[in-house]
Amino acid sequence: MPSAGRIGKLALAILTMVSLGSCGIRLPDVPKPSYQAAARDPDFVPDKGRKNPDVLVWLISDKLHTGMVFPYDWLIESGFIPPKGFGNPKYVTLSWGNRTAYVEKGLHSPGKFFMALFTPSPSVMELIPANWNVTEVCPYQRIWRKLVARGRGRDVAAFLNNCSKQGSDGRPIVCGTSSWGGGVLLESRHVYFIPRICNIWTAQVIESMGGKMNPWNAVLADGLIRQAEKPPNDFEQIWWGGGNHNLTPEEQSTLAPLEPFSTGEIQHGGTTGVQQAKPPI
Predict the structure, then answer these.
(1) Residue 168 is inside which H or E element, if any?
(2) Which of 11, 5, 126, 108 is nearest to 69 (CA)?
(3) Where are the alpha helices (DSSP H) in the chain?
(4) Any bridge partners for residue 165, and if so which?
(5) Can you tell me the distance from the alpha carbon of 52 to that of 73, in angstroms, rounded to the nearest whole number?
(6) Strongest mean pLDDT among 96-100, 129-133, 221-225
């Protein structure tokens, strides 16, 4: 039988979880939206001196965990503050979650799993550089895409900046290397616990782009995705990866390629020589 001490710790953890949950499922202190829609030119043609008014972003997911992929130059021009020496990649993949899960690439004992989910624990935001097409970087993830007004970048950058603790130089504090992809872990100012888990962060990122999300229905990855696909969010799935079909790399490579999208993304098709993106909790 469990000892009285263990029962007491369990009861305390549950009470802590309930009390924290009552304070709100969302990450707190989110900057207020600043975006104001401007009139659009129906005849706009992008050129070297004029940037496209819309930016393509991606939502990625395995069975449990979700994240976002953004053009890095869009984040920088919108005010995102990267860690010193991060570089200048084409894209960045971002996600948020329990620090132990990211640092140790998973929760490898029942005790760590319990502590991560049922007690307030430190968190990190993962920032990973990429210079290939998103489907090449994350071939085993399910992938969705959406066009977002360029002006929304200020709110996205403000949300991301607000997630991290800053050092004396005003830049986010790096506390480790990413779970994959040669990126970094940024120390987060928020605590992680059920129900405030990784997918709640993703839901709030979507909200910062003008989306409408119910966080209580976004705790699970599939619940978040169902909302992301519906208006006004309108994310379009372009890659089925291993998230639904549990394909091995060999099976993935046998899928017949379809016609490319105008952005260079493809719906199906083998990719080789890439690292599998498997974010932790």
Answers:
(1) none
(2) 126
(3) 4-22, 72-77, 99-103, 110-118, 134-137, 153-163, 198-208, 221-229, 249-253
(4) none
(5) 13
(6) 221-225
Least confident of 120-129, 165-174, 259-268: 259-268
Encoded tokens for 186 = 């940024």
Q: Are strands 142-149 and 54-61 parallel, antiparallel or unpaired?
A: antiparallel
Residue 211 · residue 234 · CB < 8 Å = no
Residue in the block written with tokens 């053009």: 71
Question: Which tokens is 180 given?
Answer: 């994959």
What pTM value is reported for the model? 0.77
Query: Tokens at residue 213, please?
Result: 């999300």
Determine the distance from the C-alpha atom of residue 261 to the mean position of all C-alpha atoms in its chain, rounded to a whole number: 23
Q: 111 pairs with which residues across the strands?
A: none
Query: What letters, b where the CB count within 10 A reaches 16 and e where it falls short, cover 120-154?
Result: bbbbbbbbbbbeebbbbbbbbbbbbbbebebbbbb
Spatial distance between the Cα atoms of 175 and 106, rounded to a whole number of angstroms: 16
Q: Which amino acid, residue 92? A: V
Which of 100-109, 152-161, 241-250, 257-266 holds the top average pLDDT?
A: 152-161
